[in-house]
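User: Here's a chain of 74 residues. Predict its fold as tokens.
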Amino acid sequence: MINAFYGTHGCYGLPDFKMLANKMGLMEKRAERIIRQVCTYQEAAETMVRGSALNEVTKQAYIDAYLEKLRRIH
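Assistant: Prediction complete.
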């Protein structure tokens, strides 16, 4: 389903995550809390990736993809 956000940005974003949460039966406050929690794990996620056995190119690609996903929900 393409909406205004997707049409503008070419990807799904916060409005879509909220709509999905609603369709799953999550209360709006709970969905917002989950999204907020995901956003607070950035430093821990980057530390975990940087300490992994992946090669440097793959590490950076993973971090870039992770940061792009965070950008979409802000």
